Amino acid sequence: MKVRKLGRTGLKVSNLCLGAMTFGAPDWGCDEATAKQIVDRFVDAGGNFIDTANVYSLGQSEAITGRVIKDKRHRVVLATKVVSPMGSGANDAGGSRKHILDAVDASLKRLGTDYIDLYQVHAYDFTTPLDETLRALDDCVRWGKVRYIGCSNYAGWELMKATALAREFNTARFDSLQPQYSLSCRYIEREHLPLCREEGIGVIPWGPLGGGLLSGKVRRGQAAPEGSRVTLNPATASIDDKTYNIIDTVISIAGELEATPSQIALAWVMRQPGVTSPIFGARTIEQLEDNIGAAQVNMDETHFQRLDEVSRLPEVYPYGNRERAAQLLKALNFEYA
């Protein structure tokens, strides 16, 4: 694996991020012994970026993550999240100052660490003023409990509003965005990715395998294997022709390159402009080995063109896209300095 800067910051992270959502998850996850094997192998392979959340298995993922990285904490960039419900109380969720300050201490205790490298707001909280959330997070940074902050699942306007408010109030700003992104879900290309490139915000997408749709386990005319997590994805119940065409193309290119479909899907995401590190999960060593193999896949331009053509978003801004702006500037004989 290679390392990349997280947005405009000086923080270096591996170009693949290990998601710990499977750690301690009942039925479809893995136990602590397997989690340790997965983390040890990931770090040995050059990975240093691990992402979890307080809500994953209601704290179990954080607790297991903290224990399995204990002897290598200094080598790991550790990310977790806040906002999702952690109880039934009125203040057990959200982006309020009370919940954030309570939650950060609880996460630090479960993780068994003095600091969190990247603390992310899991979703936008419409019930709390954004400046309250930002000021609470800024205090976490100033007190040394958190080193960088980010957000997840924000709309484009929400992220831009947060970025502008951080400038106005001189607080720590969101240095990363964790959105859904894959060949079967490219919506962030319309607003989020251009915004993040413009503002120097790192992008660490979740769901790069489309909830398992792009892993090769789902094929046209065939049922998904029993016991696979992909069967839990609601999208498998109503896959349209476009998605099947994407799957077929991924499988075809995988065969040509002697790779797996998962590696092709991951390699496509990790090479998109503005993307820092796609997040993948693993519940077995075999799945981990498969996914980290994406870093070694060498697709040429024709492969990317085929994947782009079969998965491209429909045009929705016929009067405001960059191509029309470029045509206008050309007509005015405008040149960038």
Descriptive report:
This protein has a single domain (3-331), classed as NADP-dependent oxidoreductase domain (TIM Barrel). The longest helix is centred in the C-terminal third of the chain and has 17 residues, at 241-257. The protein has an eight-stranded parallel β-sheet, with helices on one face. Strands 1-2 form a two-stranded antiparallel sheet. Helices cover 38% and strands 12% of the residues. The protein is α/β, with parallel strands linked by helices and 337 residues long.
Q: Which helices and strands, and how do they pair?
A:
Layout: E1 3-5, E2 12-14, E3 17-19, H1 32-44, E4 49-51, H2 60-68, E5 77-82, H3 97-111, E6 116-121, H4 130-142, E7 146-152, H5 156-169, E8 174-178, H6 192-199, E9 202-203, H7 241-257, H8 261-270, E10 279-281, H9 285-292, H10 301-311, H11 322-331
Parallel strand pairs: 3-4, 3-10, 4-5, 5-6, 6-7, 7-8, 8-9
Antiparallel strand pairs: 1-2
In short:
The protein has helices at residues 32-44, 60-68, 97-111, 130-142, 156-169, 192-199, 241-257, 261-270, 285-292, 301-311, 322-331, and strands at 3-5, 12-14, 17-19, 49-51, 77-82, 116-121, 146-152, 174-178, 202-203, 279-281. It is an alpha/beta fold.
Entry keywords:
TIM Barrel; 38% helix; alpha/beta; two-stranded antiparallel ribbon; 337 residues
3D shape: globular
Order of helices and strands: EEEHEHEHEHEHEHEHHEHHH
Q: What's the N-to-C terminus distance? A: 36 Å
- Provide the domain count: 1
